[in-house]
Design goal:
It is a single chain. By secondary structure, the protein is mainly alpha-helical. The protein has two domains: 5-126, no CATH class; 133-226, no CATH class. Helices cover 66% and strands 0% of the residues. 25% of the residues are buried.
Length: 229
């Protein structure tokens, strides 16, 4: 069975929560009142469940682009990125119903902001975990079969992986993992180039994007290949 990158990050995230301060549900604790004892949809109704899902997706995406040396404190970054998503939501966030309402309603915006901060914290704490990197790299590579993805799906996965690579590169992640992600991104761009050519679409310019650290790694891999390696 193949798993997506997001599912893999969710598994790691849940393990991190247990490893670093995770505890059972406690209805007497503020915040726990917003979720159920089983971790399923919160008891507040369908819309609260929807907001929780939105917060998780936005938090995962936003945290991937966080670069401490550029963005400053996580709190300031979280506010800035939510303002950016409110004004110009990138795909697939632009397809989210009620995104504007959630990001302007103080109670819901705070929930989304906390999700961003939680994911940033996960990235930081993740460096402390001892993992079998060779096994992890193999799982990720198997999970991402780019030849079976549509152009739209590839664009989404490309953005997700760029964000993750940016976080790893800017926070001193494992060099082998960084190089592997760089290789995967170049492979994805090659596949997207082929699909655009088949569909008569113009080539995409990646030189102007917010993931500076990631793009530096990718350009290094491109130059490495151009030298015939």
């Amino acid at each position: 069975m193949k798993i997506t990158q997001k599912q893999l990050r969710k598994i790691i995230r849940e393990e991190l929560i247990l490893e670093y301060g995770g505890r059972p549900y406690d209805p007497t604790v503020p915040g726990d009142q917003r979720r159920s004892p089983t971790g399923d949809a919160p008891p507040g109704g369908a819309f609260d469940a929807k907001v929780e899902k939105m917060a998780d997706e936005i938090g995962d995406r936003a945290a991937g682009g966080y670069e401490p040396s550029i963005d400053g404190s996580p709190e300031a970054y979280a506010e800035d990125i939510l303002d950016s998503y409110l004004q110009n939501p990138p795909p697939p966030l632009d397809q989210m119903e009620d995104l504007e309402y959630v990001l302007t309603k103080p109670m819901y915006r705070e929930q989304v902001k906390n999700a961003v901060l939680e994911y940033i914290g996960m990235m930081t704490e993740g460096k402390k975990i001892k993992v079998k990197k060779r096994q992890l790299r193999r799982i990720v590579k198997e999970a991402l079969d780019i030849n079976q993805l549509s152009l739209e799906d590839l664009e989404y996965e490309h953005t997700e992986l760029m964000g993750h690579l940016s976080g790893q590169a800017s926070s001193g992640g494992d060099i082998r993992d960084i190089e592997t992600m760089g290789e995967e991104i170049v492979n994805m761009r090659d596949r997207m180039h082929a699909l655009r050519t088949e569909q008569g679409l113009p080539e995409k310019d990646y030189s102007d994007n917010v993931y500076y650290s990631a793009e530096k790694v990718v350009q290094g891999e491109i130059k490495y290949r151009q030298r015939g390696h």
